[in-house]
Design goal:
- This protein has helices spanning 9-22, 25-28, 36-59, 64-80, 82-90.
- It starts with 8 loop residues before the first helix and ends with a helix.
- It is an all-alpha fold and 91 residues long.
- The radius of gyration is 21 Å and the shape is elongated.
- The chain has 5 helices and no strands.
Length: 91
């Protein structure tokens, strides 16, 4: 059963039991452990990416042929920050 085939509560229960049969909660637990250190590392990487691409924009001011690619790269970095934000909102 695929996730998009769920139309009733019984289908949902069946899907959940299938998923749980693939890997038990005890096997999954080490991979879902939350730590502040992982979050701080990701935060540092995000700030470094924003800082580096922001610095590229600063260096390319006055040269539109360099500014446009620098702004594009900075936009891509900013866009990639949405995924972790979205997951944090879900808790």
């Amino acid at each position: 059963m695929a996730a998009n085939d769920i139309s009733t509560a019984e289908d949902l229960q069946s899907f959940i039991s299938q998923q749980r049969s693939l890997i038990s909660r005890t096997e999954l637990k080490p991979f879902t452990r939350r730590t502040d250190s992982h979050g701080l590392i990701y935060l540092a990487i995000h700030f470094a990416g924003l800082g580096a691409t922001g610095w590229l924009i600063y260096l390319s001011l006055g040269n539109w042929w360099l500014l446009v690619p620098a702004m594009f790269v900075h936009g891509v970095v900013l866009n990639q920050l949405f995924a972790p934000l979205h997951e944090v909102i879900h808790g």
